[in-house]
Sequence to fold (640 residues):
Amino acid sequence: MFFLSRALRSALTLWAIVSVVFVATRLTGDPTYYLMPAEMPEQQRVELREKLGLNDDIATQYLRYGKALVRADFGRSFFSNRPVADLFFERVPNTLLLTIPAFLLSVAMGLCGGIWAALRHNSLFDRALTTATVVMQALPNFAVGIAAILIFSLSLRLLPSGGMGTWKHMVLPVITLALASSANIAHLVRSSMLEVLAQDYMRYARSKGLSPAVVVLKHGLRNAILPVLTILGLQFGGLVAGAVVTETVFAWPGVGRLVIDAVMKRDFAVLQFGILMFSTAIILANLVVDLAYGLLDPRVRGK
Amino acid sequence: MNQRELLRVENLRTYFYSQGRTVKAVEDVSFSVEQRSTVCLVGESGSGKSATAFSILNLIPKSLGRIVAGKVLFQGEDLLQISPKRHRALLGSDIAMIFQEPATALNPVYTVGEQIAEVLRAHRRCDARQARRQAKALLDRVGIPDAERRLDDYPHQLSGGMRQRAMIATAIACRPKLLIADEPTTALDATVQAQILCLLHDLQQETGMALMFITHDLSVVAEIADRVLVMYAGRVVEEGAVGQIFDAPRMPYTRGLLEARPSVHAGVSSRRLAAVSGNPPDLANLPDGCSFRPRCGYAGNGCDQSMPALETINEHSVRCFHWRQIGAFAPVPEAAL
Fold:
């Protein structure tokens, strides 16, 4: 029952997103200006539009697109004429190469920073971290990325400024991507941990003669992590969105760049598919979070 | 030193700090607990009973306050001075504590079995299977039916009484020499209260542990205590054997507490319960002289000048300038008979 209503709501969400994107892309202009030089005769332009199905009114196009979707036909790129799913999925590994390390890094930094700050409440470290998290959450990804390039690539010449190749190419984009979300997580872990540390069961655990590590990590963290889980799902969405920007800044050939290029060139099918996939990923991430909740909190499981 | 002495608390002072004020929660408290005996700590809320208990375990949160002075000698070792490692080895093993609210003291995300087993794993050399088997035996011992299945239950799946039993099972897991019980029955129904008291009594007979029992319920004290400590505003104001306290209370405050007990004796239904009038003092701003003076019906000469010292006669201590006169004039409270 839970899954059924959940699946239904997810499908509705996806449908709404697809529709909005479909209409919005068509409002942005005519892709044929990118497909052929501006000085080409109008006659040829009309023929090309006819061929691409862009002359029909928007409702007809929408219906045609919907029918194709049901057959899992997502269309082809106007430019390379390749199926968009192929274009997209061949680049997924590149993006995962950034997002997975960034996600792990941000969780690790967020947990360590947050726990330490809570244990040393009101210490210098705690104050510094709190300030830093606010700053990092406020800084946009592209600014951090460009600053990182200026410092580490141009001035210090330690790391490449863009492209893909060695592990060195990964360092800056991964850190850029992880920074904001680690700040988010640290902030939340800290406040959640502070609350947990004041709980009766923490003092009770100490009265049993357990080591501080067991008290904090086993008894504390397991409880403190629960409110953080919700944010982790959202963070994942943030990483996807962040990847779009970060891949552009660092010239990283992932799906983010693919989608940005599709926006620039009005490659409708590619753009629509990209956003459909991003949305699906975020919905799945949140589903995983809900399942993890049931796993970690026995009080939720019973209901 | 007394051969049978298990715990001796000397001049313990614990202060809490909040909003620039110093709250003297425990002020110069001394007492001792003999092996196998039951000592009851009695007093109103905020009299420093729980703070004393947590100070003995050295578990006052640093963010709230500090033990500023005193010694807590457990079998000759000062619990406030020993290394953290040695301290951990004693806690949960030789000294165990049960809390007032099992609902909040048990960790909501671990099974009851796990919370018992972890004490065994921490203090006794045993693997997970042995720990689980022992945990089951302990649940059986504290009277939890269907123990095998209950091991895998989470605290929220148990009733209040069952949770308290589970906490008792955890406390006795390593056969402690001293069990500190901080109002263990306050959060429970009356019938369950009686069962828990019975259980604690039986366990004490069985294991020979000493019991330090914190309560504000004098009817409980009458049933279980060997010695009674009455606390008021962070200080011990009267201490004695249970018979001395109930039959010949010396301190006006103790008299007040005894008179405030409901009783089923004749003619009581028409009588209003005598409450100790007024409120406990602000621990950050104590009155001059005796802390109880503002509420004391016997206050007189000198009571506002200085804090009376604890005076001990026949192993019965009292902190009052006028206890001799009061004892001579006033009859023993009816409710205590």
Chain A has two domains: 25-87, 92-253. Chain A touches chain B at residues 121, 198-201, 203-211, 214, 219, 222-223, 296-299, 302 (CB under 8 Å). Chain A has 14 helices and no strands. Residues 25-87 of chain A form one domain.
